[in-house]
């Protein structure tokens, strides 16, 4: 019965441009894009996403804002700009990038939140041809360029020769607290 229904479905809806039929008989998009349905001719097509900006190319250096970290592994980035001959050019359209766990650092962290935080601004290199673009942080000069403290929201500053981001407010607060503890004035 199910196979007969699939055959009826396949006969009533034809695959159009950039659409394929998988082993289960389901229509699948071959590219990222917008679904176009022609109900009169019973055809489903996918129009590829094209930005008004020229699409990013392999090895482009981009700047982006971390917007999500599903399962604390993959990092979703809104790409906001690209370097072009040494200058930074803002993108007009929303362009999405993804940093897989293997591209976070040369050594594998156990979670994305060990390296990045939501709202961080990163500098990355494009390593795929189509959106959503795959990005890497594994090269020299790539990684976090701006971050805020998750505790107080103040900007983090570089410490230790540019290897560690640190919140000066939290450091000052901890220093005052340690001083109070050593004098016995802290009652918390």
Plain-language structure description:
The strands form four sheets. A five-stranded mixed beta barrel has the order 6-7-8-10-9. A three-stranded mixed β-sheet has the order 1-5-4. Strands 2-3 form a two-stranded antiparallel ribbon. 14% of the residues are buried. Strand 12 and strand 13 form a beta hairpin. It has two helices and 13 strands; from the N terminus they run αβββββββββββββα. The N terminus is likely disordered. The protein has 188 residues and is mainly β. The radius of gyration is 24 Å and the shape is elongated.
Short description:
Helices cover 14% and strands 38% of the residues. It is mainly beta. The longest helix has 16 residues, at 168-183.
Write the layout of secondary structure elements.
Elements: H1 2-12, E1 14-15, E2 19-21, E3 27-29, E4 33-38, E5 43-48, E6 61-68, E7 75-84, E8 87-99, E9 121-126, E10 133-136, E11 143-146, E12 157-159, E13 164-166, H2 168-183
Parallel strand pairs: 1-5, 8-10
Antiparallel strand pairs: 2-3, 4-5, 6-7, 6-9, 7-8, 9-10, 9-11, 12-13
Whole-Å distance between the termini?
A: 70 Å
Indicate the mean pLDDT. Answer: 77
Overall form = elongated
Helix percent reads 10-25%
How large a portion of the residues is in β-strands, by DSSP E? 35-45%
Task: Provide the succession of SSEs.
Answer: HEEEEEEEEEEEEEH
- What is the tally of helical segments? 2
What kind of sheet is the major sheet?
A: 5 strands, mixed, barrel
Could you tell me the radius of gyration in angstroms? 24 Å
- How is the largest sheet built, in terms of strand order? 6-7-8-10-9
Helix/strand class? mainly beta
Extended strand count:
13
Give the low-confidence spans.
Answer: 1-10
């Amino acid at each position: 019965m199910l196979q007969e229904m699939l055959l009826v479905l396949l006969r009533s809806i034809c695959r159009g441009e950039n659409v394929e039929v998988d082993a289960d008989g389901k229509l699948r998009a071959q590219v990222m894009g917008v679904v176009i349905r022609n109900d009169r001719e019973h055809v489903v097509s996918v129009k590829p996403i094209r930005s008004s900006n020229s699409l990013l190319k392999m090895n482009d250096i981009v700047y982006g804002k971390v917007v999500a970290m599903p399962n604390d592994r993959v990092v979703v980035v809104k790409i906001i700009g690209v370097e072009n001959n040494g200058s930074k050019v803002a993108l007009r359209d929303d362009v999405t990038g993804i940093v897989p766990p293997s591209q976070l650092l040369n050594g594998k962290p156990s979670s994305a939140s060990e390296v990045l935080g939501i709202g961080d601004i990163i500098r990355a290199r494009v390593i795929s041809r189509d959106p959503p673009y795959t990005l890497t942080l594994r090269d020299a000069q790539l990684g976090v360029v701006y971050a805020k403290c998750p505790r107080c929201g103040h900007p983090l500053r570089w410490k230790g020769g540019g290897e560690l981001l640190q919140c000066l407010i939290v450091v000052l607060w901890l220093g005052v607290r340690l001083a109070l503890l050593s004098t016995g004035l802290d009652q918390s």
